Structure to design on (328 residues):
């Protein structure tokens, strides 16, 4: 056991990474000596530069922040040598780490990945797991190597995915688990009890970044598949379809219809109650919350009352025809 806290350099960017950083800051065996995160990016209608969540938390806690545009060709080496970390902890940093970073710390470079590896390696494991209708996911703590989420596994923490969970719901649970996983990992490393288990070759799958094409709702698929896609893309980036006038309609909340529906896939078959019921190739989905092009998010009933949609309308015919504000 180390007599002094392990010197940790943290690397991460979004909310889930900030959750891990927060856990490390509270760890008795950890001294976070720096936080490496992505540069500030322009966001929102005003396109103002906004700091990533990791930067905000680090600044609040007096932790030095580094935002290199690139890590390639030793660009961060001088800062790395000056910091001289014992351990690097990574969570959703957003860039591939070069070998000089991975191999620098005496205690290694570890990563929290939001899936049960070797399933869903890559950039969008939470979205893809929900979109695929998985019933379980988790966080894997692993040693990093030069591959894409291919390093030796240290430990895995699991959580169920319920049939109504959105990607946002799962993200929030995994954010907590990721912090717990990294604290456990640091304890194991510092105490000398850590183990390394190579990932099996069987069961490997990938979770590539979500594209505009991935977000398009295809009502020609069975209702369960459509429903899983909608909840797997909620709240961000949101599944999309188009109204009869070609304008984009983003869908962030839905449920499986309790009864079947007759109609050409994409046809609005019912607008009574709290939902917009749309026929699929088998069954139907109820759209519950939507964001019309150029407007804010609203419940389905409000959209119907505003005459934004009516029974008999067919959705999805204009996909790819509108690049106006409100599309992805």
């Amino acid at each position: 056991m180390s007599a002094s806290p392990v010197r940790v350099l943290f690397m991460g960017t979004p909310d889930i990474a900030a959750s891990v950083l927060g856990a490390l800051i509270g760890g008795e065996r950890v001294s976070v000596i720096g936080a490496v995160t992505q540069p500030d990016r322009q966001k929102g209608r005003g396109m103002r530069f906004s700091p990533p969540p990791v930067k905000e938390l680090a600044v609040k806690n007096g932790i030095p922040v580094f935002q290199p545009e690139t890590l390639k060709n030793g660009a961060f080496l001088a800062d790395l040598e000056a910091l001289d970390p014992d351990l690097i902890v990574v969570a959703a940093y957003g860039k591939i780490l070069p070998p000089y970073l991975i191999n620098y710390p005496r205690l290694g470079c570890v990563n929290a990945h939001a899936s049960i590896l070797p399933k869903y390696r890559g950039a969008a494991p939470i979205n893809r797991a929900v979109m695929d209708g998985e019933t379980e996911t988790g966080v894997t703590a692993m040693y990093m190597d030069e591959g894409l989420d291919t390093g030796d596994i240290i430990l895995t923490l699991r959580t169920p995915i319920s049939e109504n969970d959105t990607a946002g719901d799962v993200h929030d649970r995994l954010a907590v688990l990721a912090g717990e996983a990294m604290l456990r990992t640091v304890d194991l490393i510092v105490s000398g009890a850590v183990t390394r288990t190579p990932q099996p070759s069987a069961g490997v799958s990938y979770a590539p970044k979500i594209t505009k094409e991935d977000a398009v709702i295809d009502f020609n698929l069975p209702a369960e598949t459509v429903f899983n896609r909608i909840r797997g893309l909620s709240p961000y980036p949101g599944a999309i379809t188009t109204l009869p006038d070609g304008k984009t309609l983003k869908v962030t909340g839905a449920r499986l219809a309790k009864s079947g529906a007759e109609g050409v896939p994409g046809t609005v078959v019912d607008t009574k109650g709290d939902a917009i019921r749309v026929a699929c190739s088998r069954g139907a989905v109820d759209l519950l919350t939507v964001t019309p092009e150029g407007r804010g998010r609203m419940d389905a009933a409000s959209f119907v009352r505003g005459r934004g949609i009516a029974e008999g309308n067919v959705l999805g015919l204009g996909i790819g025809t509108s690049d106006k504000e409100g599309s992805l």
User: Anything to note?
Assistant: The CA atoms of residues 121 and 206 lie 5 Å apart.
